# Entry
Amino acid sequence: MAVESEHQYGTEEFSQVELALAARNHGFPLETLRYDITPLGLHYLLIHFDIPHVDVTGWKLDIGGHVSRPVSLSLDEIKERPRTSIAVTLECAGNGRSRYSPRPISQPWIEEAIGHAEWTGTPLAPLLEEAGVEDGAVEVLFTGLDRGLQGEVEHAYERSLPLDEARRPELLLAYEVNGQTLPPQHGFPLRLIVPGWYGMTHVKWLDSISVLTEPFEGFQQLQQYWTKTSDDDPGEPVTRMFPRSMMIPPGIPDFPERRRYVEAGPCELEGRAWSGWAPVTRVEVSVDGGETWEDAALDEPVGDYGWRRWSHAWDPEAGEHELVSRATDGAGNSQPDEVAWNTGGYVNNAPQRVFVTVR
# Structure
């Protein structure tokens, strides 16, 4: 593994840089898994640069590039288009980053970079059709209004999708979340929603959409969000969310370590599971640190791209216990015991472990 500087990877102690990021962004309290739809203030939040101030009276979304009829739309004009809502589980690609060793220096997520909200807006595909995508197009680029420096490169935050992905009917240009106008931190006035993909794809504060004839090579596309094992490894691009099951920690916590305390006797373990590749079809639970497993009961999914509640009866005896759950999706993907290290600290979907003292 090549290490460019002493600041690229962390040791056991967290740096001032990581502390500042953790204070600026925020995760999802795991007890919030009990809600089908995450209350908006409890949804995870990651902002790469600054929250831009947008004067909606002068804002327009430009759709151009390799099209025959470029389109420029105000927010009111977008709201006049067909309206739809979709419930989507969102997860940051860096969720679990702080569990890696050595730890890549970025937002130090443990396991709380998740949320499940209902997004409302207009489908993207009809707007691309209206603009007239021409032959030879290969990708669609989404550019946000947030701008900054990363890797000594000044750039607006922008990401592209293959044309076939961008034309999926469920992709949404969202202007509401959970029945209210997008708040500034979640992308006001308009953001992209790409059900099934990790959060870096859901570009906020949309400024423009461009149809491209060549693959996009911007910083956030080629330098970030690849699972590289070294600086020389080309790696694989981060795309869809891998299966993950999360448990509501039972009982009560101590402060500050958050270890759980549960009274002896019957209790119900519960949580949520999701995957971006296919719906979750199985959740297994272990109460002995993964030595033995039992199937959990599954509720119906919350929409095609939402999470699925699971539950499991447990009748513990006094002592120390390690609780674990793992998910499998309909495409055959399962959570592994461990995930291979990568330079960006991405897609660490190793199972959550909850340590419980039964009294």
Remarks:
- The longest helix spans residues 16-24.
- The chain has two domains: 9-222, 244-358.
